[in-house]
Write a structure and sequence with these properties.
- The chain is an all-alpha fold.
- The protein has one domain: Orthogonal Bundle (MetI-like fold).
- The two termini are 36 Å apart.
Length: 240
Amino acid sequence: MILLAIGWELMARSLANPLVPHVAEIGSELVRILSDGSFVSQVLVTLGRVALGFVFAFAVSLAVGIAMGRNRYVRQFAEPAVLIGLTVPGLVWALLCVIWFGISLTTSTVAVALSLAPPLTLSIAQGVKTVSAELQEIAAVYQLSQRARLRFLWLPTLYPFLLNGIRIGLSMAWKVIVLVEIFGLSSGVGYRLNVEYSSMNVAGVLAWTIGFAAVMAVLEYGFIGGLERRLTRWRRVASV
């Protein structure tokens, strides 16, 4: 980060262009949006929209992914749609949802779900196929309950695949939700980026971008990384 800031400052001084602000100007904008409370409030709005779309996508992906992993007919039927969903750019989902649903909570929820569901579904399906057939037979011989099988057999196997799918899906969801907010909503990080862009405040655009990227990094390395270490600690213990 320090090298990037130094490189940017050198570029800004060499170009001497108002469209390439100095690091001090960007820092000043970042302090402003943090001190007036607008950054925290708008980030919470954006995160809430992502969370709602994630819950919807997770419920659908879990059901479809398990069915794809356990039944080849379901896999043959659903896999083309999942692969197509992976190739559709987030910009397309954002535009379509704004056209279909207008300015509403449904717009952001569906757009996030459509971008997050394909990678999550595919990861779950791949995880289900890796569950050991021998362990499934042992569970059947000992007549373990469905709850016990889910807790001790299925979930430990699926955790890495779930987290991988969540990482990929969220990386796409952040881009989609910002685009939706830019195109059709009146709050959120995307909306604030659009406001700064409309006023040609490049330093403001960069300040919001840096702040939002920092929040995403905290979620990735703090929340998701911590969750992964907690859920997969049995693997480290078993390998000792």
